[in-house]
Automatic annotation (TrEMBL):
<feature type="transmembrane region" description="Helical">
    <location>
        <begin position="97"/>
        <end position="118"/>
    </location>
</feature>
<dbReference type="InterPro" id="IPR003675">
    <property type="entry name" value="Rce1/LyrA-like_dom"/>
</dbReference>
<keyword id="KW-0812">Transmembrane</keyword>
<dbReference type="GO" id="GO:0080120">
    <property type="term" value="P:CAAX-box protein maturation"/>
</dbReference>
<feature type="domain" description="CAAX prenyl protease 2/Lysostaphin resistance protein A-like">
    <location>
        <begin position="141"/>
        <end position="236"/>
    </location>
</feature>
<dbReference type="GO" id="GO:0004175">
    <property type="term" value="F:endopeptidase activity"/>
</dbReference>
<protein>
    <recommendedName>
        <fullName>CAAX prenyl protease 2/Lysostaphin resistance protein A-like domain-containing protein</fullName>
    </recommendedName>
</protein>
<dbReference type="Pfam" id="PF02517">
    <property type="entry name" value="Rce1-like"/>
</dbReference>
<feature type="transmembrane region" description="Helical">
    <location>
        <begin position="197"/>
        <end position="217"/>
    </location>
</feature>
<keyword id="KW-1133">Transmembrane helix</keyword>
<feature type="transmembrane region" description="Helical">
    <location>
        <begin position="224"/>
        <end position="246"/>
    </location>
</feature>
<keyword id="KW-0472">Membrane</keyword>
<feature type="transmembrane region" description="Helical">
    <location>
        <begin position="172"/>
        <end position="191"/>
    </location>
</feature>
<dbReference type="InterPro" id="IPR052710">
    <property type="entry name" value="CAAX_protease"/>
</dbReference>
<feature type="transmembrane region" description="Helical">
    <location>
        <begin position="138"/>
        <end position="160"/>
    </location>
</feature>
<feature type="transmembrane region" description="Helical">
    <location>
        <begin position="59"/>
        <end position="81"/>
    </location>
</feature>
<feature type="transmembrane region" description="Helical">
    <location>
        <begin position="22"/>
        <end position="53"/>
    </location>
</feature>
Length: 249
């Protein structure tokens, strides 16, 4: 009579149920991406600071942005390579473009609405790391808008919708996967804040709603390009509005 011997380590996540294991893996991916971005960011930013650039300069901000997106992409690609599965990506159909337009409108309206509500309630906004460089050089907003379209949106959607939400969907189903992925997506943006306060809750709520819209768009279209376009257009819209409010154009 043959016997099967388990080679699974005692401390492995396999001792948890599929749902818990999926959440742990998804969270681990995000934590790994953030930690790698810190390491890569330090390696890129420190030479700039020692070279004479201010820590709050636009050059350091953009360098940090590149470090973060590179790290996110590396973690996402490594996970897919190890798991031998891929994300859905195709040229947009007319239906996809309808989702893009609707998604952009929904995210921008939700963001402006929640921010207006927080202002009405007297909640002070929390300063972000972007604020100082932008106030010193508002034109930086236009550069960030361009980078959102070609770098930030593609990479973040690849990691959070394609990889993280895709992994969660296999065990939790689409609704729960969207919720957990959106929460993880919103939580990493806390790292962009100079301080944490009540305003941080508003910011997390805004980004959670945006993430949920992106997640629904991906599930309904099965095309990662759709949330990428929504994400890029959403960021660009807010950056341009901020630029105009600071006297641009």
């Amino acid at each position: 009579m043959s016997q099967t011997v388990s080679t699974q380590p005692v401390g492995s996540t396999r001792r948890f149920g599929p749902s818990v294991r999926a959440v742990l893996v998804a969270t681990g991916l995000v934590v790994a991406a953030v930690l790698l971005s810190v390491v890569v960011g330090v390696a890129i930013v420190l030479p700039l600071i020692f070279g004479g650039f201010e820590a709050t300069s636009g050059v350091v901000l953009v360098a940090s942005l590149f470090a973060t997106q590179l790290s996110f992409a590396v973690v996402g690609f490594l996970y897919l390579w190890r798991r031998d599965w891929s994300v859905s990506f195709a040229a947009p159909t007319r239906r996809d473009l309808t989702w893009v337009v609707g998604g952009v409108v929904a995210t921008v309206v939700a963001a402006i609405g929640l921010l207006a509500l927080s202002e009405f309630l007297g909640i002070e906004p929390v300063e972000s790391v972007v604020e100082a460089p932008v106030l010193a050089n508002p034109t930086l907003l236009l550069l960030l808008a361009g980078l959102s379209l070609v770098l930030v949106a593609p990479v973040e959607e690849f990691l959070f919708r394609g990889v993280v939400q895709g992994r969660l969907r296999r065990s939790l189903g689409a609704p729960a996967a969207i919720g957990v992925a959106s929460l993880l997506f919103a939580s990493i943006h806390l790292l962009n804040l100079v301080a944490v306060g009540v305003g941080a809750i508003v910011m997390v709520a805004v980004i959670f709603v945006v993430g949920a819209v992106l997640g629904v768009a991906y599930e309904r279209t099965e095309n990662l390009l759709v949330p990428i376009l929504i994400h890029g257009a959403y960021n660009t819209t807010l950056f341009v509005i901020s630029y105009v409010s600071l006297g641009g154009f």
